Amino acid sequence: MKKILLIGSLVLGLSVILAACASQATEQVEDQASEQVQEQVPDPIVYTIDMSEYAFAPNSLAAQVGQEVTINLVNSGALEHEIMFGRDVMFTENGRPHGFEHDMFEEAGMEPEVMHMEASEGEHMEDEMDDDGHMEDHSGFMVVLPVGDETASFTFTVTEDMLGEWEIGCFLLDGVHYDSGMKGKFTVTN
Asked: Per-residue pLDDT tens for 42-52?
């Protein structure tokens, strides 16, 4: 009988020790998983895109899901320029490029807030797309920058809905800017 009690006590003691070890191991795994998630969030990135005749510089941008991206726009050209992000170029009845069938920001369910700044005055104002006359010409998110000292900036966090390769383009002057080379790419990876 003493042997049975001794064996029972040993089994009970061993069970308590194993349960404590399993609990500690579970906590360590959870801590490691939490640290890995924190490590996977990429650092914010800032791009300054110079818009000119007829190019974006740089014309190739890359980001990762979860990354905060700030895009600063400068128009150093002699003409007004715009930037749009999308896939599948649409064409007008006369065969001219007209915008993108799939807008990147619309697909992601967001519309970044655009801030314009007059370099000479240092004043900020919200984007006023309705007054530029281009909203009726194109659909989707776009930023139009007139000639002069005005710059624009917008920030967004990349989502899984943005995975893949997107195109950037300017479709002003009935698509002449786009056809003349004012295009590029925006690649999103995990």
From this structure: 999 999 999 99
Domain map (residue ranges) of the chain: 1-40, 45-189
Between strands 142-145 and 124-126, the pairing is unpaired
Buried b (16+ CB within 10 A) or exposed e, 179-189: eeebbbebebe
Least confident range from 10-14, 79-83, 129-133, 168-172: namely 129-133
pLDDT bin (cut points 50, 70, 90) of residue 9 is low
pLDDT at residue 31, as a whole number: 62
Phi first, then psi, for residue 150 (nearest 5°) are -70, 140
Please tell us whether the domain made up of 45-189 is placed in CATH 2.60.40.420.
yes
Return the DSSP state at 161.
G
> Using one digit for the tens of pLDDT, what is the confidence trace for 24-67?
766 665 666 555 555 688 999 999 999 999 999 999 999 999 99
- Return d(Cα 70, Cα 132) in angstroms, integer: 23
Instruction: Say which residues have a Cβ less than 8 Å from residue 97's Cβ, sequence separation at least 6.
Output: 89, 90, 91, 169, 171, 175, 178, 179
Query: Kind of pairing, strands 114-118 and 124-126?
Result: antiparallel
pTM above 0.85, yes or no: no
Length of the chain (residues): 190
